[in-house]
Specification:
Layout: E1 31-32, E2 35-37, E3 44-48, E4 51-52, H1 62-70, H2 77-80, H3 84-93, H4 97-100, E5 104-108, H5 114-121, E6 125-130, H6 134-142, E7 148-152, E8 165-170, H7 180-187, E9 191-202, H8 212-219, H9 224-246, H10 252-256, H11 272-287, H12 297-306, E10 311-317, E11 320-326
Parallel strand pairs: 5-6, 5-8, 6-7, 8-9
Antiparallel strand pairs: 1-2, 2-3, 3-4, 9-11, 10-11
Helix pairs in contact: 1-6, 9-11
């Protein structure tokens, strides 16, 4: 697949083709048609609405599929009119649009595509996947980018060649997987030596306690639609209180944290409806995931050492650790 870079955020260059998808079991190229087939193990992978699917429709991330299809546009910069996602990606990774242009990027866990949009606009050759049906929300918003390939797949069984990507990006994902250490280490199999990476993860509760942990044993077992209905009723009642508390000098951010709704005052969202939508989305995101496993800095340092990542830094930002560097 090639196209002019002017259509995809770059100037004066051609977007190169994506590499063929490979069988996650046999690691051989898949033959394409109305579905993908492996000539070695005879596995067949369906293509739904143009997106190859390598996982069952029902999996542990069903709640994420629900939320992102419900909030397809909420966090996209093109919808909010603010460069919130762009600033977060570029500031956290320390990458520039010029560095990304024409390079291959693997985005792990795309959600509705807020960061996919940013990556595609740089002119990078983007492969983005998610285990949930959120890939369809991403396709609806970003499918017009010719430099984007979307796949529905599990981190543990990816249909890509190892060491085939120049950049690796993964935000808001690994703490929600069954085995965080395995997830973290698996991702690096697909980054080429010398490739650059940026991954974030929730900081351990001892470093960032939050009252949602009191409710999650109940809420994570609720059907997504039922939980979402509760959140929709709760946010308009509690968000004004959280906003008032967060405005108190010094202690505001800590006081607001005691109110169990997501507060995005620090983002500078002016429109009340946009504020409310962000809060509903992220409050649901707190309570719904089957897995939520924050990590300590010491554990992250051990994983970096195990992988022999000579150039890596771990930076604390609010309730997150950001791990970035060079493989």
């Amino acid at each position: 697949m090639t196209s002019s870079a002017q259509e995809n955020g770059g100037a004066g260059m051609e977007i190169p083709c994506h590499e063929p998808l490979h069988c996650p079991r046999c690691h051989v190229p898949l033959s394409a048609g109305n579905e993908l087939r492996c000539a070695v193990c005879s596995a067949v992978y369906p293509i739904e609405n143009g997106i190859p699917r390598f996982v069952p429709k029902d999996n542990y991330a069903t709640g994420f599929g629900f939320q992102w299809n419900r909030h397809r546009l909420t966090q996209l910069d093109s919808h909010s009119g603010m460069p919130i996602s762009r600033d977060r990606l570029l500031n956290a990774s320390r990458w520039s649009a010029d560095e990304l242009r024409g390079r291959t990027v693997l985005e792990c866990g795309s959600g509705a595509g807020r960061f996919t949009e940013v990556l595609c606009e740089t002119g990078a050759v983007v492969t983005s996947f998610d285990i949930s049906s959120a890939v369809h929300a991403n396709a609806a918003s970003n499918g017009h980018f010719a430099n984007l390939r979307l796949v529905q797949a599990s981190i543990y069984e990816l249909p890509f060649l190892e060491e085939s990507f120049d950049f690796l990006f993964c935000f808001g994902v690994i703490q929600h997987t069954p085995d965080v250490e395995r997830t973290f280490k698996t991702l690096f199999r697909y980054l080429r030596p010398g490739g650059r990476f940026c991954i974030d993860v929730y900081a351990a509760m001892v470093a960032y306690p939050h009252p949602r942990q009191l409710f999650r044993p109940i809420t994570k077992r609720m059907p997504p639609a039922k939980l979402y209905s509760h959140v929709e009723r709760m946010v308009p009642r509690l968000l004004p209180l959280s906003m008032k508390l967060s405005s108190i000098p010094g202690a505001g951010q800590y006081l607001a944290r005691m109110v169990p709704v997501a507060n995005h005052r620090h983002l500078g969202l002016k429109d009340e409806e946009i504020q409310r939508n962000w809060s509903v989305l992220d409050t649901f995101d707190w309570f719904a995931p089957r897995y939520e496993q924050p990590q300590t800095r010491r554990r992250l340092e051990r994983w970096v050492k195990d992988l022999e990542l000579s150039e890596a830094s771990i930076v604390r930002h609010r309730g997150l650790y950001v791990i970035r560097g060079v493989k």
